[in-house]
Automatic annotation (TrEMBL):
<feature type="transmembrane region" description="Helical">
    <location>
        <begin position="12"/>
        <end position="38"/>
    </location>
</feature>
<protein>
    <recommendedName>
        <fullName>Spermidine/putrescine transport system permease protein</fullName>
    </recommendedName>
</protein>
<dbReference type="GO" id="GO:0016020">
    <property type="term" value="C:membrane"/>
</dbReference>
<feature type="transmembrane region" description="Helical">
    <location>
        <begin position="71"/>
        <end position="91"/>
    </location>
</feature>
<keyword id="KW-0472">Membrane</keyword>
<dbReference type="InterPro" id="IPR035906">
    <property type="entry name" value="MetI-like_sf"/>
</dbReference>
<keyword id="KW-1133">Transmembrane helix</keyword>
<keyword id="KW-0812">Transmembrane</keyword>
Amino acid sequence: MTRSRPSLFSLVLSLPLLIWQLAFFAFPLLFLIAISFWSVRNFQMTPDLNFGNWERILTRGTFWDAYARSAMLATASAVLTVAFAAISFAYKERGK
C-alpha cells in the first residue's frame, strides 16, 4: 500500500498554524536559549559563549526542588485525568 502525498490545498491550509507555532513557540524558545549563553555586567548583556548561567541554575537545589514538584504535579494530573477518562468511558450511557 502506498501513501498518498498531501495536496497543495491541505498544505496551504496548514500554513496559519505553522506561522502561529513559529511565532509564539519556536522563535521565543530559540531566543531564550540563545540569550542564556550571554553574560550580564553592569546591566549590559554581552554575547559571549559561556555556560556559567547553566552551571549556576543546574547546581542550585532550588531548581531541582521546583523541577521535582513540577514532575509530581504533572504525574498526578496525568493519573487523575486517565482515571476520570476511564471511569467516564466505563459508565457511558447506552444509546447516546
